[in-house]
Amino acid sequence: MKSENTTQRLNAQDEYFLDADTPTAPTHVGGLEIYELPPGAGRDFMQKYYAQIKRQPVRAEPFNYVLSTLAEEEDTGSQGLLAWMRPGQRRRKKDATVRVWKRLESVNPEEHIYLHALPYPGGQRELGELVARLHVNRLDRSRPLWEMHLIEGLEGGRYAVYMKLHHSQFDGKRGVSLAQYTRSTKPSARGMPPIWAVDLSKHHERAAGGKGSGAAEAGRLEQLAAWGKALSKMRAVRGHKAGQGVIVPYTAPASILNGPLTPRRRLGTVSLSIPRVRALGAAVEGGATVNEIVLAVCGGALRRYLKDRDALPKEPLIAACPVALARKDGAAAGNAVGQILVSLETHLGHPAQRLRGVVASSRANKALMQSLDQDAYFNYLNLTMMPQALVAKTRYGHKVLNANLVISNVPGPRETQYVNGARMEAMYAASLLLPGQALNITVSNFGDNLDVGILACPDLCPSPQRIAVFAGEELAILEKAMGIEPVRAKREVQSKKAGTARAPRNKPKTKTEPKPSKKARSKTASS
Question: Are 359 and 237 in contact (CB under 8 A)?
Answer without folding.
Answer: no
